[in-house]
Specification:
The complex is a heterodimer. By secondary structure, chain A is of the alpha+beta class. In chain A, 37% of the residues lie in helices and 23% in strands. In chain A, the strands form six sheets. Chain A has an eight-stranded antiparallel β-sheet, sandwiched between helices. In chain A, strands 3-2-1-4-5 form a five-stranded parallel β-sheet. A three-stranded antiparallel β-sheet of chain A has the order 7-6-8, with helices on one face. The radius of gyration of chain A is 26 Å and the shape is globular. In chain B, strand 3 and strand 4 (30-40) form a beta hairpin. By secondary structure, chain B is mostly beta strands. Chain B has an eight-stranded antiparallel β-barrel with strand order 1-2-3-4-5-6-7-8. Classes of the chains: A alpha+beta, B mainly beta. Chains A and B meet through strand 16, helix 13, helix 16 and helix 17 of A and strand 1, strand 2, strand 3, strand 4 and strand 5 of B.
């Protein structure tokens, strides 16, 4: 193997915002590397800017005029003498042309090569690559079935149950689940006519139907010397409309033997694409233990902290070392998870108003603390949640010796957390913790949507008396009325005596109900 | 001090009295001894007969307080009985209960789907609010008649601002 020259990184430009920009800054500071960030106009006072060594404006609020300006970002990196760009997730992170721009400008892109991004970015190309590498994919084919005979032959070859899907499809239209051969003729006719009516193209193909699968993904890391390792799985089955909501590691159902087999498949997948740096192979896990490659995410994932907590590996620091040309160390061989980690994604959305977004100013913010609690956040008390970007505010991650204790710790941490001024998904997590299926680890990718659709997961009671909000509001009104009535000279005296005992003990610091 | 408090369709009379060691709050037929302290701006500790509750209270509008326990939050309207009486006389609907519906998120009013005085059914959309490029209908919680509408299309509203009255 050709030797890879070491390219030391002394300054990194972060082409992202929010919590992931903060996460990367933390890794850089621990490594003694200078961290520079870009910011759009509304992000001028965002947490990444406040924590960065250097910060540069990149444009107005809309992403395409700021965080997606690839050429301007590479140009900026050159001007400020950055050796590397970290793209985070989202934005430019999985755009091969951006990785290429970096390479052409002599800037290290902290991620895989543009060729690997291209190979994994195309569904058809990556599927072909995986089949060639012996990685299991969902049985079936994208080839249109011209008639019922072809459909019958294809379905027999795969084995029932199967799913008929429209080639031009999407959104469930032209999709038919076929439990056995008897139902095939009717389902085939219906799927074709529905596909034709919906998409103006009535071609359909057949795929193996996997009932209530889990979403299990494998974290891989590759160096520039051709070595790829697996760092174990994450269970990400709790999704709302294909958006992950809760992630954990390890999965409650993955045995060491299955972990080894899935890890080997993921490493084969990555190696087939000539993959380096951090990446994730997503699989569907069927109830019978068979698993199928879905796609590879060629970047750091939102949910990477759960892997960090159970493996002890700092994924962002490893990404940077690998990008410098350092080989992966022997300590990354056969990494086994230790304990259990759970992450919840805190969104500025109201789970009980159809997940309506809830932008605004964060009036009160208190993060949980104490044993086994980690918060990766992009907000602070007083900061504005902008309407322009993804509504994810932060991730709360807990670690404990086993799953049951991790869930108890999550409940404790959520009870300490206070976010006021906006609505968040916190009450949904509290309701999930009271859900028997979630507690038992009976998860699949449709579970959350089914439960929400059935009106389950309502806010749990917090043991407070029903009269509490009325009492609190009445006291606030009382206090304010007395203040106003007291007039300005005696208002100070009234202020001091406010709230009786607490005021006397000096616990109050300008606290006011109004 | 005697007050009227409203939460959703619930309405109660409250009497607040300062007593040694805090407050006595009489609410309906219940009486609570409350020791209250402000831990920091907007965040309060209420000890009610020994049980501790950390409550965030924010004055969202003239007489509307946004109260949150962390898991649950609600807009509570507080008025003194005189104001209450005056508003009932003005409306000419003495005895009828009105609910003020507040914005649960900041945003922009896109459209009004009902007018003042209109009879509406539970669940019927009244105001369309837009935030983060999503439109959300704010509806009637119960059957009733629309009283005053406080907003008009194009107007920006903050969380807790009153949108309309439902009688």
């Amino acid at each position: 193997m050709a030797t890879v020259p070491r390219k030391p990184i002394r300054k990194v430009l972060i082409a992202n915002r929010g919590e992931i920009a903060v996460r990367i800054l933390r890794a850089l500071r621990e490594m003694g590397i200078r961290g520079a960030v870009i910011y759009s106009e509304p992000d001028r006072l965002g947490l990444p800017v406040l924590l960065a060594d250097e910060a540069y404006p990149i444009g107005p609020a809309p992403s395409r005029e700021s965080y997606l300006r690839g050429e301007a970002i590479v140009q900026l990196a050159r001007e400020i003498g950055a050796d590397a760009i970290h793209p985070g997730y989202g934005f430019l992170s999985e755009r091969a042309e951006f990785a290429r721009l970096c390479r052409d400008a002599g800037i290290t892109f902290i991620g895989p090569s543009p060729e690997a991004i291209d190979a994994m970015g195309s569904k058809i190309e990556s599927r072909r690559l995986m089949i060639a590498a012996g990685v299991p994919v969902v049985p079936g084919g994208q080839d249109p079935l011209p008639d019922l005979d072809a459909a019958t032959a294809a379905a027999e070859a795969i084995g029932y149950p199967v799913m008929l899907k429209a080639s031009a499809g999407g959104g469930g239209k032209g999709m038919r689940r076929v439990p056995s051969a008897a139902e095939l003729p009717g389902a085939y006719r219906a799927a074709r006519s529905e596909a034709g009516a919906s998409f103006g193209d009535d071609s359909v193909y057949v795929e193996k139907f996997i009932e209530n699968p889990r979403h299990i993904e494998i974290q891989v890391m590759g160096d520039l010397h051709g070595r790829v390792v697996s760092l174990g799985e994450r269970e990400c089955s709790l999704q709302r409309r294909h958006q992950k909501v809760v992630e954990e590691a390890p999965s409650p159902v993955v045995t060491p033997e299955l972990r080894r087999r899935m890890g080997e498949a993921a490493v084969r997948a990555a190696a087939a694409a000539g993959y380096s740096n951090a990446g994730t192979c997503e699989f569907l896990l069927a109830r019978d233990g068979s698993f199928y490659f879905l796609e590879m995410n060629t970047r750091l994932q939102v949910e990477h902290p759960v892997t960090e907590l159970v493996t002890g590996v700092d994924l962002v620091q490893t990404q940077i070392r690998v990008a410098e040309g350092e080989p992966l160390g022997p300590e990354l061989d056969d990494v086994e998870p230790r304990g259990h980690a759970v992450e919840v994604r805190l969104y500025a959305e109201d789970p009980y108003q159809r997940f309506a977004p809830s932008p605004g100013r964060i009036r009160i913010l208190r993060w949980p603390d104490g044993p086994g609690v980690r918060v990766d956040s992009g907000i602070y008390e007083g900061s504005e949640v902008s309407i322009h970007y993804d509504p994810m505010l932060a991730k709360l991650i807990v670690w404990a010796a086993d799953r049951e204790r991790a869930l108890e710790r999550l409940g404790r941490a959520l009870s300490e957390l206070r976010i006021e001024g906006i609505r968040t998904t916190v009450p949904l997590f509290q309701a999930l913790l009271a859900d028997a299926d979630f507690r038992a680890g009976n998860l699949d990718i449709g579970m959350l949507d089914r439960k929400l659709g059935a009106g389950e997961l309502r806010p749990s009671t917090d043991g407070a008396p029903d009269d509490l909000p009325l009492i609190a509001a009445a006291l606030a009104y009382y206090e304010r009325a007395n203040q106003t009535a007291a007039g300005s000279p005696s208002a100070n005296a009234s202020r001091r005596s406010r709230w009786g005992a607490a005021g006397r003990h000096g616990a109050m610091r300008g606290g006011s109900w109004t | 001090m005697d007050l009227i408090v409203r939460l959703g369709i619930r309405e109660e009379r409250v009497r607040v009295r300062r007593v040694d060691g805090g407050f006595e709050v009489a609410l309906g037929d219940r009486t609570y001894h409350v020791d209250a302290g402000a831990a920091r701006g907007g965040l309060h500790s209420l000890r009610i007969d020994g049980a501790q509750h950390e409550v965030a209270v924010h004055r969202a509008d003239e007489d509307v307080y946004w109260v949150s326990t962390g898991q649950h939050s609600a807009a509570v309207e507080v008025v003194d009985p005189l104001t209450h009486l005056a508003s009932q006389t003005r409306g000419g609907k003495g005895g009828k209960r009105r609910q003020r519906v507040n914005a649960y998120m900041p945003g922009r009013v896109v459209a009004l789907l009902a007018e003042e005085g209109q009879e509406v059914a539970a669940g019927q959309g009244i105001v369309v609010l837009e935030a983060m490029k999503m439109e959300n209908e704010i509806g009637a919680e119960h059957n009733g008649r629309i009283g005053k509408i406080f907003v008009q299309p194009g107007q920006a509203v903050e969380m807790g601002n009153p949108l309309f009255e439902l009688e």
